[in-house]
Amino acid sequence: MDNTFEPKNIIVTGGCGFIGSNFVRWVAENHPETHITVLDKLTYAGNPKNIAGLPDAQVELVVGDICDGELLDRIVPGHDAIVHYAAESHNDNSILDPEPFVQTNVMGTYRLLQAVRKFDVRYHHVSTDEVYGDLALGEPRRFEPGDPYRSSSPYSSTKASSDLLVRAWERTYGLRATISNCSNNYGPYQHVEKFIPRQVTNILCGIRPKLYGTGENVRDWIHTEDHSRAVWDILTKGTIGETYLIGANGERSNIDVLREILSLMGQPQDAFDWVRDRPGHDRRYAIDPTKLEEELGWRPLHKDFSEGLAQTIEWYRTHESWWRPAKEATEAKYAAQGQ
Ligand code: NAD
Ligand code: DAU
């Protein structure tokens, strides 16, 4: 049976953030038949410049909070799907102040699910591999869709909670919902608080990069464009009620990524500082993307991490006016916590 879904009018929550805006730009370019309403609160992480220049007739920005049920009642009718990216997304922030994470990630998802129920629209929930906790360094195992939830940080626990709400609403109320759990994204428009942009912009500012703990922690890097393509495939071809894991076989230790940045930017290999480790720091994430590949035929296009990293460095080098306004305050916050 052909269960292809052809969305004509979607809401993208968090569409002014890093991954959400890359998705909006990708859909605008590749699916001009689809209208996009971006719903974004424009927190410190949201920037309307991320979607500037897209056609007004195709992309509309509504500034608002996903926790605002009345707003959802006004804007959801007339749309055929919601793709939910909006979140408080940074682990270090969640350790300092978990409350906005509980509010946006849990309550916000709850409000969206109630609106999805009320107006019977399709729903795709964007989540993280961190819901599965971490893996030991060096073990061959990778995360699989049926793995138990073992989240360890306040951030990942709120994301795990939101995933469980989606599963419950799908089973109990028959919502037409899918979930994806993706590994670490890199690419343009990522906030300077995150690992790769922080180190790149530090070097551009003459500040030494900062490595947490031993630097041995492993992340599984995927270019954000490949994440966007996967989310579109799941939205349009995925099976209702299913969870898909998104990853591009990009496992690397933090110290290896940092050394690659240093070398691409012409810096000595030891030109960085070791800093205080993140409390509860997850050791290793790794995704087994077999289900996504076999069921939906998705494959990553950005297979060469070094090339993608070089392009990302170049993007930050040529977009200083984009990242500069957030840099000083971000570094001051890190310095206050010894990082
Ligand atoms: P981000 O922090 O860059 O962007 C979050 C966006 O959500 C911002 O535009 C912000 O203004 C908006 N937002 C926050 N609270 C809101 C609210 N209450 N109402 C409306 N809008 C609100 O985040 P990101 O890194 O782009 O992550 C996007 C999504 O992808 C998140 O759900 C995250 O858990 C998930 N994810 C991220 C990664 C990663 O590597 N960054 C990997 C897997 C999954
Ligand atoms: O795995 C998916 C997750 O990836 C997403 O759900 C999160 O939203 C996203 O922020 C990301 O989480 P991480 O905690 O893995 O990303 P972050 O960029 O904060 O850190 C990546 C690694 O680098 C992590 O092991 C901590 C380390 N680190 C980070 C910073 C900011 C450093 O060593 N130095 C730093 O300065």
TrEMBL record:
It holds the Pfam family GDP_Man_Dehyd. It catalyses: dTDP-alpha-D-glucose = dTDP-4-dehydro-6-deoxy-alpha-D-glucose + H2O. Residues 11-310 form the NAD(P)-binding domain. One of its GO terms (biological process) is nucleotide-sugar metabolic process. Belongs to the NAD(P)-dependent epimerase/dehydratase family. dTDP-glucose dehydratase subfamily. This is dTDP-glucose 4,6-dehydratase. InterPro entries: dTDP_Gluc_deHydtase (IPR005888), NAD(P)-bd_dom (IPR016040), NAD(P)-bd_dom_sf (IPR036291). The lineage of its organism: Bacteria, Bacillati, Actinomycetota, Coriobacteriia, Coriobacteriales. It comes from the Bacteria.
